[in-house]
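[Automated response] Your request has been received and processed.

Submitted sequence:
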Amino acid sequence: MPRPLEGELVRLRAREETDVDNIHRWMNDWETIKYLGARYPRSKAFERQWLAAGDPAYANAQFIVETLADSRPIGWLGLHHATPENGCADLGIAIGERDFLEGGYGTDAMRTACGYGFEMMNLHRIELTVYDWNPRAIRVYEKVGFQREGTIRDGIFKAGRWNDLLFMGLLRDELQMEG
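Generated structure:
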């Protein structure tokens, strides 16, 4: 039986104090945050507080994404706002190490996180929003099985312009673990 927090390329693990330098670097790198809701520089002190506040809980399961081959931290993800009543959570992910933006790491992290959400958290649905100008992420999400459910027109101001947000959802029986 596969381990619930391991995929083929990545492992999801708890966030640790030793992750603060990586998270601080990633959250102050435009290439990482341009696709996230974050917009202002963040201090190491802020990142330390964020790490300390990350009490693992059903409603806010957060992980560091690391490679299986050498345990190198490459990003983070979370299943946020999970509610047992609705069996639903919001998924957020960022691969902060640019060398790992290709090669299937993001796809494997998404599959691992969604599998964990469905099998370990008993979720029925996982949803996310993505900028319409992020084709790499949209391809990954669709490969995993997410369906486009709607568009929030001019949903966020980022990178000097108003951007549409695509709303995507995945039901338990739609998860595609291969392909």
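Summary generated for your ticket: Residues 105-119 form the longest helix (15 residues). The mean pLDDT is 90.
If you did not submit this request, please reply to this message.
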